Amino acid sequence: AGPTEANPSVSSDSERVIVVGAGISGLAAARHLADRGQGVVVLEARNRIGGRIWTSGKWAGMPLDLGASWIHGIDSNPIAALAAKARARTVVTNPDSSTGYLADGSEVDGAQAKAIDRWQSKMEDALSSYQDDADKDASVRSVVERALRWSSLSDDDKALISFGLNDYEHEYSGSVDRMSALYFDSGADIKGKDVLFPGGYHQITDLLASGLSIRTGHVVKHIDWDSSGVTVATDKDTFLAGHVVVTLPLGVLQRGAVTFGPGLPANKRTAIDKLGMGVLNKCYLRFPKVFWPDTDWMTHVPDVDKYGQWEQWINISRVTGRPVLLGFNAADFGRTTEGWSDTRIVDSAMGTLRTIFGSDIPAPVGYQITRWASDPYACGSYSYNKIGSTPSMRDSLAAAVEDRVHFAGEATHRDSYQTVHGAYLSGIRAAKEVAD
Ligand SMILES: Cc1cc2nc3c(=O)[nH]c(=O)nc-3n(C[C@H](O)[C@H](O)[C@H](O)COP(=O)(O)OP(=O)(O)OC[C@H]3O[C@@H](n4cnc5c(N)ncnc54)[C@H](O)[C@@H]3O)c2cc1C
């Protein structure tokens, strides 16, 4: 039967494709299919599209990205092509444009900067020789600490090494205590400059979404299939289709928030279980005036007992001309702060800024804070390679089930997981599977 009058959204149209999730991967899949004449409906739990791309309009005239900010590596990056198509202005941020500070707030001098670089190279060497020689996985931290004879080091050197370890956590989002030394960096190298969008990343998702049939406010609960088709049940309705493209974040799959009938194959369940979902949170602070240096980045090396706290900041005034700083917290500390009140988070951030810039800096006039791990439709920021996982598990995560249930999303991209472009490419890949 076709759509019924009582329930127009129920259709047995076996040609139709349902896409679960209106993040960049779901939108890419739906766009690809719709452009080829395929009937496609996107079901999205939130009342907005974009998923982990989320531009806040809370401060008038100052769009701020609470999820992804950058196109990582603009060379042959499909998101750079979409940005051009959307006529979205981009601004390069340069990792070398950075001012560093030590635990006491003093600026890192030339010799100290060299010491940081030296420890960073030693860490990289230790991890790459481990990858060459080891036959058993271990955590990034344990490999680094063993190779650098941790217990024999001074507290100052430990602080510099810890800063390097936390840098991995910012990049990969997992804790170095659980991140796989063998595979933590198994993704493809980023090629080209990093750029962000002063007008917000939503320009990319809006471009893809234009004209698509998207049902927001539909929380998918069950996905069932057999030889005749697929049934997708949300909290409001039931939808029938020939194929479904599932773009649920890894953390949502891990939580078992959506049931699959019949169950998912064993290798996919193993991949869901073993891959890691990490955390990166943002805290934007708006001030009455700029009191910080005119570099893109500011870094802070805290004492070892304050591991991972407010180590990386980006100077938003370079991008928007407005007096705004963005502090990041990753992995365990990022997760810990999610249990704190906004006031406690802002006070903690201000503690670091006062150590660096003095107690007479102005109080912030506004803040915006993310809690990605507590978000039930993300359950984390992006995936990472946890001890016990292997890169091939991403292929298992990506594999279609019986040519009916297809999977996309950043975690399914073996080379470019953790990124917008990886998620986008995974959506196109899933759409091509359906269309074939
Ligand atoms: C703080 C942060 C900073 C980042 N920075 C960058 C960066 O600078 N550059 C970069 O390239 N990448 C960055 N990333 C990663 C990037 O945002 C993601 O890789 C990408 O957006 C993921 O897209 P996706 O389509 O796979 O998943 P999502 O965008 O999460 O899409 C999945 C969709 O499914 C929906 N959903 C969940 N559960 C259900 C349900 N039960 N029913 C229906 N719908 C459901 C969700 O609401 C969501 O809209 C960042 C991520 C975070 C969180």
Descriptive notes:
The chain contains 13 helices and 22 strands. The protein is an alpha/beta fold. The protein has two domains: 17-54 and 198-276 and 385-435, 3-Layer(bba) Sandwich (FAD/NAD(P)-binding domain), CATH 3.50.50; 95-192 and 279-369, Polyamine Oxidase, Chain A, domain 2 (Alpha-Beta Complex). β10 and β11 (229-234) form a beta hairpin. α1 (24-35) packs parallel to α13 and α3 crosses α5 (155-172). The longest helix is centred in the first third of the chain and has 24 residues, at 110-133. The radius of gyration is 23 Å and the shape is globular. The two termini are 25 Å apart. The structure holds flavin-adenine dinucleotide. Flavin-adenine dinucleotide (FAD) binds next to α1, β16 and α13.
- Name the hetero compounds present: flavin-adenine dinucleotide
Q: Average pLDDT across residues?
A: 95
CATH architecture identity of the largest domain: Alpha-Beta Complex
* Strand neighbour order, sheet with most strands: 7-17-18-19-16-20
Number of structural domains: 2
Largest sheet: 6 strands, mixed
Integer-rounded radius of gyration? 23 Å
- Helix percent reads 25-40%
Strand content: 15-25%
Number of helical regions: 13
How many β-strand stretches? Answer: 22
Large-scale geometry: globular
Structural class: alpha/beta
In angstroms, what separates the terminal alpha carbons?
A: 25 Å
Low-confidence stretches: 1-12
The CATH class of the largest domain: Alpha Beta
- Quote the CATH topology of the largest domain: Polyamine Oxidase, Chain A, domain 2
Protein name: Amine oxidase domain-containing protein
Cofactor: FAD
Domain Amine oxidase: 24-434
Organism: Streptomyces gilvosporeus
